[in-house]
Amino acid sequence: MPSNPNMTGAKLRGVLDGLGFEGVGSLLASGNLVFRTESTDAAALETRIQRALNAELGIAGGTIVREYAELRALVDSDPFHGLTHSRATYLVATFFKSAEIPTEISDFDDPLVRIVRIDPAARAILAVVDDSTGPTTAYMARLDKRYGKDITTRTWLTVQKIVKKLEQ
To answer: One Pfam match, by short name (predicted)?
Structure first.
């Protein structure tokens, strides 16, 4: 949440630096952080990071970790082949914290949303949202209501930028 003064890139990076992670960097003003660590246990990392964010900055929840290989495979799969991000084709990926994600979304009847794919390996729903009539917040609110708060939605452009930043 960019409006939270404790969610500045510098403060968030400081917490991860304090945890001993390497190559800590932030991307955009929405809490996206990249880092390197020897640990491969994403759930343990989420818990460790979340505890530190809560203790040091009062940020109660929302940490979701993805490995570079997971994101690279997702980008390489080209789920939005032939589409360009625009107001009418707002390309988004919703990541689930849990390993259990829906296998289908049969009752997500919204003429402004087209589910492109559910990707179990990335624990993500990929969708195209028509943003020309209003913000995507309605779509995200529906996802929150249906699946809870342990999800996060990022534009496809942001996902691609995260992968590029991890490759630096």
So the answer is: DUF1697
The residues of the chain scoring below 50 in pLDDT are 1-2
- Residues 108 and 147 placed together within one structural domain of the fold: yes
Total domains in the fold of the chain: 2
CA-nearest of 40, 23, 140 to 90 is 140
The residues pairing with 92 across neighbouring beta strands, listed in sequence order, are 127, 155
Model pTM above 0.85: yes
DSSP 149: S
- Coarse DSSP helix, strand, coil percentages of the chain, rounded to the nearest 5 percent: 35, 20, 45
Residues 81 and 159 in one domain: yes
d(CA 29, CA 50): 18
Task: Name 52's Cβ contacts closer than 8 Å, sequence gap at least 6.
Answer: 15, 16, 18, 19
Do 40 and 113 fall within a single domain?
no
